[in-house]
Amino acid sequence: MTVVLGASPAASSGPEHVTVPVAYDAILLASFGGPEGQDDVIPFLRNVTRGRGIPDERLEEVAHHYRAFGGISPINAQNRMLKAALETELADRGIDLPVLWGNRNWDPYLREALTEAHDRGFSQLIAIATSAYSSYSSCRQYREDYAIALEETGLAGEITIDKVRQFFDHPGFVQPFIDGLRAALADIRERFEGIDLASEVEVLFTTHSIPSADAERSGPSFRGFGPEGAYAAQHRAVAEVVMLAATSGVGETDVPWQLVFQSRSGPPSQPWLEPDINDAIAELPAKGVRAVVIVPLGFVSDHMEVMWDLDNEALESCAENGLYGVRTPTPGVDPAYVSGLIDLVLERVNGTPTEERASVTDIGPWYDVCRPGCCENVRLGFKPALAGIAP
Fold this sequence. Notes:
By secondary structure, the chain is an alpha/beta fold. The chain is built from 13 helices and eight strands. It folds into two domains: 26-168 and 334-356, Rossmann fold, CATH 3.40.50; 171-327, Rossmann fold. The protein has helices at residues 41-48, 56-67, 75-92, 110-119, 136-153, 171-191, 197-200, 212-216, 229-247, 277-282, 304-307, 309-320, 335-350, and strands at 26-31, 99-103, 124-129, 160-163, 201-208, 257-262, 291-295, 324-327. It has a four-stranded parallel β-sheet, sandwiched between helices. A four-stranded parallel β-sheet has the order 6-5-7-8, with helices on both faces. The relative contact order is 0.18.
């Protein structure tokens, strides 16, 4: 009995890890999307908030972030670069898999990518979403949008879409954060001669805040991750790996760190994950901290939440509190990250056994096929979603 909508035959019965080789026709690179001009900003934000009845005057409160950059989100340019980097990596490895690109909220849309796939004769796609962790907005919503795009194009039954596993602890994703933190700590040691990293420096691993109810339901319930779910557990596990790797061998393994959150957008009455990064920064001077390293652990590229919320607001908070602040790079098109994404595709192409899959935490490797009820949105309920067992 088929339990996974729109899946390849190998994934249709819902195994945790698909260890049967699959001959995919193409890779579907799926991202959030962003405006590319001032006239695009409000229509884009309407897309992002569709179904929530938010008036344009409230959307304009967020729009000024984009307007400060000429109405252009950096995310589309970054995805063009990522697409080109993936194509180069595939060519260098002699792998014949075209890369199609579609967004959830702006042109090019997912439905356009699926239409292109159909026109080019591709029927079996493997999807990479530009989001590494488990939650409604970072995984299940992508899977719902795959299902919507198939229905909109009338291609349900003609095109199958599997997805690579959430890659939060794949070494290709993690290594750029290790390199960035190691470089930032070296910069601080050079800049502040004699500084005690164990008492005068703090590392803030930051990620997008989400509603607490969504966090609790992130990942499958049987894993028992606690009230903040798989979303927070995955981030903390990766942060521990990054800290250990970036500080070992230089006598700095006791540098303090914490997981913080940013970019919340819900009403004050709705609980979201805390602490907010700016609140956390404000508390550091009283602890004797002189320098802060901000590691954007939840983000794959320098999109608006990084460039505005971190490079603008968080670093401004550092300055206001008399702290030296530095933000480390996101993976972007780092060779390790690009190579790692292709490795994830090849896991499915080759049907790699679970025990041979790369993972740097005890939590992973994550599931190829999302488990039943994974990452429920309590406000919206369950909708049809690909690449996972219903609901």
